[in-house]
Give the backbone structure.
Amino acid sequence: MEHFLAKFAKHIKKKVIELTRLIIVISYLEFICLLKIDFWDFTMSIIKTINLNKIYDAETEIPVHAVNDVSLEFEAGEFTAIIGPSGCGKTTLLNLLGGLDRPTSGTVTIDGTDIIKLSSSEIIDFRLRNIGFVFQAYNLVPVLTAKENVEFIMQLQGIPKQQREERVLQLFEQIGLKDRLNNRPGKLSGGQQQRVAVARALASKPKFVLADEPTANLDSKSTSNLLDIMEKLNEVENTTFIFSTHDSRVMKRARRLVSLEDGKVVSDNNQMEHR
Ligand SMILES: Nc1ncnc2c1ncn2[C@@H]1O[C@H](COP(=O)(O)OP(=O)(O)OP(=O)(O)O)[C@@H](O)[C@H]1O
Ligand SMILES: [Mg+2]
């Protein structure tokens, strides 16, 4: 009898050990899964939208669904073009990504921060520290010279004068406008203003640049020049570029193309796979 009980106890002990091991393995796997998801979220996608919607004139008889249920992820170091016909929602989407406009619904997370939840002053500060924006209509300050337009963002960021001057000169050299430093925007052509607007966005080496049709008014040489500058910054500083464009020269050099139609994403292609 005693022998039987001892055998039974040994059997139970063995089963308990096996079960404990199984529980430990399952918990470990769950932990790894959790870590992987967090790790992915934290390090890879710099910008993420979930079910993003922007409806203009929602309360009227003709509401415009400019951005329609867009869920996208952009990783650090991307060089991505948002394309599509006029009115498809490119500018609206870029404005939402940069916190310049608030969505009707959905979320925009940048580097882990839900920017919809930030107050107006927090979002201004967040943009200043992280985002360079090139507007479709340039939005240069008319009373400032080209140089001052580029410099004042760096001034707001507290960058010392000498460093500011060096960076401005370097950028104007790169965009080919060294001889226009002291011109006000009214005394620059559309293409020249556009290049100054790009220089302003790049001046403080932001983590990411959102550019709305940055080459719309440029000739082939200036377009190629500008893309060289952007690609170099992308490679050297790992700056993330998301730009809207109609320009086939720009599309060719983008590594990912996101197409919009009526506010919806209709295709999302990694061009590197086809090269
Ligand atoms: N402030 C606004 N109020 C009402 N409707 C707007 C407003 N801004 C844009 N829209 C509408 O939203 C839609 C998307 O406009 P958006 O400017 O985002 O298009 P887009 O793709 O940038 O066009 P484009 O290539 O011409 O710059 C359009 O139908 C436009 O008329
Ligand atoms: Mg636009």
About this structure: The first helix runs from residue 2 to 43.
